[in-house]
Amino acid sequence: MNSKPKIGVYVCHCGINISKTVDVDAVTEYASQLPGVKVARNYSYMCSDPGQLLIKEDIKKQGLNRVVVASCSPRMHELTFRKALAEAGLNPYYLEMANLREQCSWVHADREEATAKAKKIVASAVAKVRLLEPLEEKEVEVEPATLIIGGGIAGIQAALDIANAGYKVFLVEKTPSLGGKMSKLDKTFPTLDCSACILTPKMVDVASHPNIELMTYSQVEEVTGYVGNFQVKVRKKARFVDVDKCTGCGICGEECRLAGRIPNEFDEGMGKRGAIYLPFPQAVPAKYTIDPERCLFLTRGKCGKSPKCVDACPAGAIDFEQKDEIVEFKVGAIIVATGYDVFDATRKPEYGYGQYKNVLTALELERLVSASGPTGGQVVLGEGESAFVPKEIAFIQCVGSRDKSVGNEYCSRVCCMYTAKLAHLVKEKIPEANVRVYYMDVRAFGKGFEEFYDRVRREGVRYIRGNPSEAFKRGDKLVIKAEDTLTAKTLEDEVDLVVLSVGLEPRKDAREIIDLLRLSQSADKFYLEAHPKLAPVDTATDGVYLAGCAQGPKDIPDTVAQAKGAASSALILLSSGKVKVQAQVSSVDEATCRGCGYCVEICPYGAIELVTVNRFGHKVTVARVNEALCKGCGACAAGCLSGSIQQKSFKDSQILPQIAALGVKQ
Amino acid sequence: MSEKFEPNIVAFLCNWCSYAGADLAGTSRIQYPANLKIIRVMCTGRVNPLFIVNAFQQGADGVLVSGCHPGDCHYMEGNYYARRRFSLIRELLEYIGIDPRRIHMSWVSASEGAKWKDVVEKVVAEAREAGPFDQFRRNKINW
Known about the structure:
The structure holds 2 protein chains of 2 kinds. By secondary structure, chain A is α/β, with parallel strands linked by helices. Helices cover 28% and strands 24% of the residues of chain A. Chain A contains 18 helices and 34 strands. Chain A is globular, with a radius of gyration of 31 Å. The model of chain A has no long low-confidence stretch (mean pLDDT 95). Chain B is an alpha/beta fold. In chain B, strands 2-1-3-4 form a 4-stranded parallel sheet, with helices on both faces. In chain B, helix 1 crosses helix 4. The longest helix of chain B has 18 residues, at 78-95. The radius of gyration of chain B is 15 Å and the shape is globular. The chains are: A alpha/beta, B alpha/beta. Chains A and B meet through helix 3, helix 4, helix 5, helix 17 and helix 18 of A and helix 1, strand 2, helix 2 and helix 3 of B.
């Protein structure tokens, strides 16, 4: 089948990462004795230019036809070395990697044991590489469109970049408006830019862009296909308002029988809305939506004599007959920009959130200081006669971040700076207020952050090092109990307002996207990037990219930068127009296949079908693989009763020798 | 002899979760016993029960199959096939007299480097208790 194997084995020192614990000379010497090995060498960095050159030269001069690189994980450099083989004129699938770094030298300390294991790993790779077959990489066309899930600043930026490059974008947002969390912010740190002033123009751009199809109040239901060719199904939820007729005049919202009685999500529940509502005045699209869980007519079938919104709407836009609509389309790339949830402060009951009304989260305070908020920008607590302006204000940092007791070990990266910003804004609105911040460390790492933190301290905000143990009520006041760890003194601090600087968490519905797109989660449960350093916007699923806080907590500049990165990654795919599909697919030996159809049932992608072929004049049924649909999992190969269906590069005949090389005791 | 006995373990890891988890253990410099050697497959669904039998025939004292957590399979349902096949082969091998402490399956995700270490330690310890295994040995096959 193949020409006689002439194998080259290349053992990498990886600086001293491998050679410190593995005797690379001994491994090289051992490899040179293995059957079929013609050349065995070691070199300090195989992945470097001279390292690759070594392989290429040997392929050309020594006529090598198989290569084993014993270095790092194939997840790291398999593609690098495949490329090197191809450049030397050898089929790139004649490569096998022996993982001596991540799975040997880095995890073992004993040099003798590690060297013995390294030899076995190399022997196993050599045993397999002898039997590898050349594979052909097929190319498919890329659908020149992108799906972006999430209409916050990350999704907006990515959508605009891709649309401006001339490609179609489908932007799907779950809530009735674009804007995401950023739209709730009053100012942004450290420049104190007005959040709405920099965000809302972009929202308008998205809605009016000829290349962007915006779907708000919609959810992605199903994604099938593969890189370059995803089929997407989106559910456009019924708004019960005809968006073509609605002018956003707002009369319905005022007339609704429940007007001013339903907590408004946009104001963190502090403001009130009706059952028909616009999330916030600058919402895009500026179209009203009926909340089906609250609307009297939709929940009880009756709203007075007739629904007031219907009577009031001058455009006749209310339509209670409206149904959810399913939209289907094709895209080549997908960007996940689903954002985050704010930490639920009731999970830290010692601070009394939810129990005492003057304990607020930072996002609630943000709404209070915002001119578009429920108090028109006045920091006022309580209502009616008991309303008052707080004078003694304390922030508590790291609520839900850097806290193993709630399962969040990570730093949320924005709380130190939004606290500094809020402290500044509060001082601006209430100059006589005494503001202090209880903190563990202040992490002012970004551009202009340290300067801003300094400025806020100069403005009189006090920083007290030590996280409070509790906050409780005494009379009209709240009391914070803490230890100032710099002076080692315990203190009780009477204040009017406690602000909890809550961290960022993965969304509670994060699972939905994982199930849709086969994403992985990192230990902190945010979506996992393909490589933390070198592929920070890619995922393990080809053609799917991450942007913004869905991947991990980050501030607005970092989110925008990542969104631009994700957009650029998607554009590389779209503009190249073609993509290589998985070559390590399954194939059927039609001479031995008996057409039982078991593999057809196993295949999760419906990539196998039964066909009738002519075998020596007899019509027989055999299985056949559609290579465009096959993703190369190999489940069919393990299930086949006759061994007729095999996964290329992972055939039984290739894996069994690998096992043999590992199993035999020396 | 039993004091000096070091079991030889062959492990089949899926590319997306457990192999990446084992890589992460390496990147994090987590130390674990060197007895276990890994064969990478794209999905645990690829693990033919024959591989497990074959590993024992070739001189393994223990076998591990490790993949994505149920519901997290990169190929949607490969690990469910693996689980079904595994429990069958494990029962069959136990029935014919192989100590079940030699046959393991685990779920290790790409972010569970520390769990990977625990799994390896457990598998090695149990195989060590079970002792050397050679009832199944057959002469080396020349592929």
